[in-house]
Specification:
By secondary structure, the chain is an all-alpha fold. Among the domains are: about 55 residues; about 210 residues, no CATH class. About 65% of the residues lie in helices and about 0% in strands. It contains 16 helices and two strands. A two-stranded antiparallel sheet has the order 1-2. A hairpin with a 5-residue loop joins strand 1 and strand 2. Helix 4 packs antiparallel against helix 13. The protein starts with a helix and ends with a helix.
């Protein structure tokens, strides 16, 4: 029963993720009104119930952190708005994001399934890039979107209907630039750029030694297309994240100096090709963001425990803070931010353990347990040390890309973060079950280190604010 649950649950999870990222309206058209996404989520929950008792998912600190964070999300809106209905709405809006972590941990229990998740991510990215490219090639006005005669400004609703995969905006010189975006949760070019940067290292999980043709068609060519997609988003945060990923990847292979040269060359070349669409990357151009960071810290001071409420930052300020740490702390307070830090620390530690060759030992398969009714789902899949390290390298680069982009974006609660966290924990669990890495830290130590991470992140924001103020 549990084996069947794992099979069906995995297939439905893949369908759910595709529907979530590409939106029910895109895939099902008029049928989207029947709440396809919610039906899928409930069906997966029902199918997953037999898998939970034998799974490791509830044994991880991340699960405790997400349950605590979900409770804080509810309380943050309840205390701020003093309305149970609003708190329930915020809670239900938050649940799909963390749902990704539990689905991956429950059903993605083998290398093959991890690779299928990577292929799914590639498909989503290629689909959006193809749609946006077709939109660009079909012709967009060089003079910019049409101006409404009644309002004297761009009719964004009409533009979104005509060009759903392009965002029209003016750059620093007043010229119109069209930025690639997706739908639903990746409707912002910065969101989609962040997903692309995360997906590029993940594609190398599909790399197979001595398979030149397979590597060319399944890795190299898709990576090139995704790089074009990052360029079409014209996202400054995505460019900085991509530079960081290139720096770390090159440093591991060629050394620190070569890594710095390569990453610097990538950044300079991207700026020369007008990667950001004519928008500057400088302390001066980021002055508005630093003001919003400061405003976010002020909100934290006035609402220290539960914040101003989940998704309520823009109810207090003219724009979002463009920093995941600031938005998370301001919206859910120190308590919610602490739970978020628990998830972050545990995920970083897990990927750090499997990505460093010195931390990974040779596989030691435990003796099989003799039971009256052996379950196929409980069998341990042998995996070599080199494969675990390669998996760890790819996942760590993807996480670096997400976190660097997230430092300049308000993306603390997006599905991509928790999906990536689930993939990391699955890889760690595969290594742990074969005694290749040490066991998880006791919960008390995790909580202590998470407190240090929380304080360190807030201090880093404060120090950066002081430095930016001195540079003005």
């Amino acid at each position: 029963m549990r084996f069947i649950s794992l099979k069906i649950g995995f297939v439905l999870s893949i369908v759910y993720f595709v529907v979530y990222y590409l939106t029910p309206m895109t895939l099902f058209g008029p049928l989207a009104q029947f709440r396809v996404e919610m039906i899928l989520a409930l069906l997966i929950l029902l199918v997953s119930l037999p898998s939970i008792p034998g799974s490791f998912v509830l044994k991880t600190p991340q699960s405790l952190a997400l349950i605590g964070l979900a409770c804080v999300v509810f309380l943050s809106v309840l205390f701020e708005e003093r309305w149970v209905g609003g708190a329930l709405h915020g809670f239900l809006k938050f649940i799909p994001s963390i749902y990704a972590y539990f689905l991956v941990c429950l059903h993605c229990n083998s290398r093959r399934k991890v690779k299928i998740v990577v292929v799914m991510t590639m498909f989503i990215c290629l689909f959006v890039i193809a749609q946006g490219t077709l939109d660009l090639r079909s012709g967009v006005p060089q003079s910019g979107p049409a101006i409404s005669t009644s309002t004297g400004s761009v009719d964004q609703r009409l533009w979104s209907m005509q060009h759903p995969y392009l965002l029209a905006m003016k750059n620093d010189t007043g010229q119109w630039v069209y930025r690639l975006r997706g739908q639903g949760s990746i409707n912002d070019p910065n969101d989609f750029g962040q997903v692309l940067v995360c997906a590029i290292p993940l594609l190398f999980i599909l790399w197979r030694p001595k398979r030149k043709l397979a590597n060319l068609t399944c890795v190299i060519l898709p990576v090139c297309v995704l790089l074009i997609g990052v360029y079409l988003t014209h996202s400054r945060g995505a460019l900085l994240a991509l530079t960081a990923v290139a720096l770390v990847a090159a440093r591991r292979r060629f050394g620190t100096l070569a890594g710095l040269i390569l990453a610097g060359g990538l950044f300079v070349g991207a700026m020369a090709l007008h990667f950001t669409g004519g928008r500057e990357i400088s302390a001066q151009s980021g002055s508005d963001r630093s003001e919003l960071w400061s405003a976010g810290l002020t909100l934290l001071k006035t609402h220290p425990l539960f914040g101003v409420g989940f998704n309520q930052f823009m109810q207090h300020e003219r724009n979002t803070a463009h920093n995941s740490v600031v938005v998370c702390a301001a919206e859910v307070g120190l308590i919610g931010f602490y739970f978020w830090s628990v998830f972050l620390y545990s995920t970083v530690r897990s990927v750090g353990m499997i990505a460093r060759p010195g931390k990974v030992g040779e596989a030691q398969l435990p003796s099989p347990q003799v039971t009256m009714f052996p379950q196929a789902a409980d069998k341990i899949e042998p995996i070599a040390k080199s494969e675990i390290i390669h998996l760890g390298h790819c996942l760590s680069l993807s996480l670096i890309g997400f976190l660097v982009a997230g430092w300049f974006l308000s993306r603390a609660f997006v599905t991509t973060f928790f999906l990536l966290g689930g993939m990391i924990e699955v890889a760690y669990e595969m290594a742990r079950r074969q005694r290749m890495v040490p066991p998880r830290l006791p919960l008390s130590r995790v909580l202590m280190w998470a407190l240090a991470v929380m304080v360190g992140l807030l201090l880093l924001v404060y120090v950066m604010l002081r430095v930016l103020n001195l540079m003005r």
